[in-house]
Amino acid sequence: MNTFKELTSSFILIISWFLFAISAYLLYWTIIMPEYAIIPILIIIAIGLLCFYSSRKLDGRKKLINKFREFEIERERSI
User: Fold this and answer.
1) Which of 58, 62, 39 is nearest to 50 (CA)?
2) Which of 6, 34, 45, 55 is disulfide-compatible with 12, CB 3.0–4.6 A?
């Protein structure tokens, strides 16, 4: 189950960076023709941020690092 969460988190992170690249391309077109590209760029940025946020929520490494730090602190106290 943990491997599936890690895989999903990585996949969503890659998708979010891909969407940010598309939004950069659309930003270029916003400068050229603002009336045609402003709605798609806002939609793509919103979806990219949602994917990025979801990736961070699914990433279990932060919790693992915090548990490891707590373990080290408890070990130092016992010494």
Assistant:
1) 58
2) 55
Residue 27 structural domain: 2-78
Burial status of residue 6 (CB atoms within 10 A of its CB: 0-12, 13-18, 19 or more): middle
HSE-up (13 A, CA, CB side) for residue 34: 1
What residues contact residue 67 under an 8 Å CB cut-off, 6+ apart? none
Angle at the Cα of 30 from the Cα atoms of 20 and 22, rounded to 5 degrees: 20
Top pLDDT among 5 and 64 is at 5
Q: What is the count of structural domains for the chain?
A: 1
Q: How confident is the model at residue 71 (pLDDT cuts 50, 70, 90)?
A: low
